[in-house]
Amino acid sequence: MQVPWSIKNIMAVSPRPPIVAVMGHIDHGKSSLLDYIRKSKVTEGEAGGITQHVSAYEAVHEHEGTPRTITFLDTPGHEAFRALRSRGAAAADVAILVVAADDGVKPQTLEAYEAIMEAGTPFVVAFTKIDKNGADLEKAKYAVLEHGIYLEGLGGSISYAGVSSKSGEGIPELLDLVLLTADMAELSTDPEAEASGFVLESSQDPKQGITASLILKDGTLNIGDFAIAGSALVPVRFIENFAGKRITTAAASQPVRLAGWSSLPPAGTPFVCAKTKKDAEKLVATPERASLRLDQLTAEEKGKVLLPLIIKADATGSIAAIKHELAKIAHERVAVRIVSEGLGAVSENDVKTAQAGGAVIIAFTVSTDGRARDLADRAGVSIETFSIIYDLAERVSLLVTERSPRFMQEEILGQAKILKVFSVAGVKHVLGARWESGALTVGDLVKVDRRGIPLGTMKLTNLQQVRNDVKEIHVEGEFGLQLEGKVEIAAGDTIQTYTTVEK
């Protein structure tokens, strides 16, 4: 008997492991939590101890007597990596919102929560560092309540657990909550379908070319398939799992790595697969091409000095984070312009481009080719190297300040009204005046004004108060003074002491 299509399709559907995004504020223990779950020390290899990429891992947890696989996405907590957190939330089936019990709710905690809500992802709360001095679990619970995160037992339905990544306390209970939340979603896949999912990250490998980390949401990926993400295409010649081991097939919820892409697949882009190259090429999107020359100014850049930058980084997510940080650098006289961006080591072509346009090269967690370094030294091209995003942002802010043109600007110090002209001998004028504001000091330059019309400038050479010589007048009252200069002063004129400052 022939099986009806609808029944056949149902029969092909099977449960799949949950994909779980771990999200929260920087330094609240996300990666340490995953380290304990994976029995690894990933955070020790992170620059500055922070996660700067979306990373995917698999772990096994025994739930109700049955070993269950869980795929974890570790997302950056630093404010610069907003896009990466959103990407992680969108790709996940369940999220763990991490809140440190000793620190409570912080800006990126709320940002992570917003990303979770925007993606519509069910979540649980993990209160980390409960073993730390100063930890207050009850206070942390009420802190999340104040921001509309209503926990179980406190007026809501959001599950939570207090955990320690040092002792492991509470972590089994947390994973049980994650699996219960996932089971309620009834996650499933069709193993017979072509693989599909999301691009987590892409990068340039010096040996393998363009590589991309993917997370499968449905179907099965096999060697011989063709994967397509936007305008990028790759024949699947080998598959690497999260541990870097080569496998022949990958199922739904697995994180994998593919190498040899035709172009850079944008991070966060959905990917699909096809069995033949011909079918794959039909699915390839036409890339959009756009360029902006240095002589083409945007409305925001007009009237400003340009700081051209060439960005080289290890991954597309890093470039997105860098651009996010640079967009926050505002200056009234200088505009930051990214003239080129790319993955991999700084090359001779990068240096030549920088030399032609007066650009600074920003290298984020990538090296500089030896010949490129020699050329940069000869050409006077600056290559700035960084491994931590906020160090990069701080340095570019300084470069902006350094590039800002300097202007001499007058700064008014004090003001007085001329009451009487006592004598004039050549350029020396002995006068009586009344203080109005600020401070008038011997040696100051003086502007003379008559009913709004500037008459010229003079120099203050003497001050007297109650017939005693003084260095400064800064309080209300009448005083005597001597000015030197070729200006005809009359009673009623206004004088202002001033200085010129560089701004």
Topology summary:
Blueprint: H1 5-12, E1 14-15, E2 19-24, H2 30-38, E3 55-63, E4 66-74, H3 82-91, E5 94-100, H4 107-119, E6 123-128, H5 137-145, E7 160-162, H6 171-185, E8 188-189, E9 196-205, E10 209-218, E11 220-222, E12 226-229, E13 232-235, E14 239-240, E15 246-247, E16 249-251, E17 255-259, E18 270-274, H7 277-283, E19 305-313, H8 316-327, E20 334-343, H9 348-357, E21 360-364, H10 370-379, E22 383-386, H11 389-403, E23 408-425, E24 428-438, E25 440-441, E26 445-450, E27 453-465, E28 468-469, E29 472-473, E30 478-484, E31 494-502
Parallel strand pairs: 2-4, 2-5, 5-6, 6-7, 19-20, 19-21, 21-22
Antiparallel strand pairs: 1-8, 3-4, 9-10, 9-18, 10-17, 11-16, 12-13, 12-18, 14-15, 23-24, 23-31, 24-30, 25-29, 26-27, 26-31, 27-28, 27-30
Helix pairs in contact: 3-4, 8-11, 9-10
